[in-house]
Amino acid sequence: MDIEFVRSRFIKHFDGKEGNIYASPGRINLIGEHTDYNGGFVFPGAVDKGIMCEIRPNGTNTIMAYAIDLKDRVEFKVDDPQGPRASWARYIYGIVQEMRKLGVDVKGFNTAFAGDVPLGAGMSSSAALESCYAFALNDLFGDNKVSKWDMVLAGQATEHNYCGVNCGIMDQFASVFGKAGCLMRLDCRSREFEYFPFNPVGYKLVLLDSVVKHELAGSPYNDRRNSCENVVKHIAAKHPEGKFETLRDCTWEQLEEVKAEVGDEDYRRAKFVLGEKDRVLAVCDALNAGDYETVGKKMYETHYGLSKEYEVSCEELDYLNDIAKENGVTGSRIMGGGFGGCTINLVKEDLYDKFIADAKAKYTAKFGHAPKVYDVVISDGARKIC
């Protein structure tokens, strides 16, 4: 993100005076899909693409915000009970309200922001926007008294209360707590987390965006969540002495006990979740040992599970995964909820150019358009630039 570009737009659209500049990143998730609502682990990292804003108090009770990329300007009062209609401005409005609930005495300000998080690639541009403004408001009006976890939860509450998205905490967590050269294992049940070194010398991390998003009939995410909850219910009935809230609490042996009762579909979905729990922990050990071959192997296992057991893949994503295997890519899998979006790929540098060229050529020949390519660098979380 270009600091001078954001500053020039801010100066042009307001009174010519400079403010403070803040930035917050988007995120990737190396492994750990569909585990958050099952009480499991996720393994995200902040990336070198995100949101950057310039902001300066204006001495009034009015917030004047300019979205550089959209060329759109919105004004609203700090204490406006309804807030703006523009969807992008709802994120800023929501963060203002949630930070005020935390005791931050937010006053009026002028702000302009821009982003370079690819839209539709599952890298969480909205969380980056929320985290950027939460950090900025805490710095400008809160004397930095609000904790990082409070900023994470303020971002989540903004999605829930003002934007109509009932999201988890992984995206905001990664955007706030990100650390260059490290991925983070987050326990979605306890909120405990740990940094793990990610310095894959000789490898690159790259996203291939299928540029498709399939809308399936019904509620595919709810269906899968219901499958998991059904398995937990049956296991709990067989073990009344235990405490079974999510699949996180269940063992492989207990899953086998209820296989006949829950049916093949629910069994396969629960099998994926238990396997993914084990894979995340295996990747932690591999990263500590600098063993990126094992990391890659687990990524392929996750893709297989998401495709064949959890059934959230699609033809385009499976094809990109097959191309990765054909090119000797160390690891490849679906990143995100599925039904479209990206694969995340861990590839040796000496294979990178051939892999990308082959993927573009074969994918275009089959589907009529090339995948988008996004190289990933693991970076720091929300911060003040100047």
Task: Walk across the major sheet and give the strand order.
Answer: 5-4-6-3-1-13
What do we call the CATH topology of the largest domain? Answer: Ribosomal Protein S5, domain 2
Q: Characterize the biggest β-sheet.
A: 6 strands, mixed
CA(first)-CA(last) distance: 14 Å
The SSE string, one letter per element, is: HEEEEEHEHHHEEEHHHHHHEEHEE
- What's the CATH class label of the largest domain? Alpha Beta
Report the total helices: 12
Unreliable spans are none
CATH architecture of the largest domain: 2-Layer Sandwich
State the domain count.
2
Question: Mean of residue pLDDT?
Answer: 94
Radius of gyration: 22 Å
Which descriptor suits the 3D outline? globular
- Count every beta strand, where a strand is a DSSP E run of 2 or more residues: 13
Which structural class best describes the helix and strand composition?
A: alpha+beta
GO cellular component, one term: cytosol
Enzyme class: transferase
EC number: 2.7.1.6
Organism: Marseilla massiliensis
How is this structure best described in words?
The protein folds into 2 domains: 3-198 and 380-384, Ribosomal Protein S5, domain 2; 203-375, Alpha-Beta Plaits (2-Layer Sandwich). The strands form 3 sheets. The chain has a 6-stranded mixed sheet, with helices on both faces. Strands 10-11-9-12 form a 4-stranded antiparallel sheet. It is 44% helix and 23% strand. It starts with a helix and ends with a strand. It has helices at residues 3-13, 87-101, 125-141, 148-162, 170-177, 220-238, 252-257, 259-262, 264-288, 292-309, 315-326, 349-367, and strands at 20-29, 41-42, 44-57, 62-67, 72-77, 109-115, 182-187, 193-197, 203-213, 331-335, 340-348, 372-376, 383-384. Helix 4 runs antiparallel to helix 5 (170-177). With 386 residues, it is of the alpha+beta class.
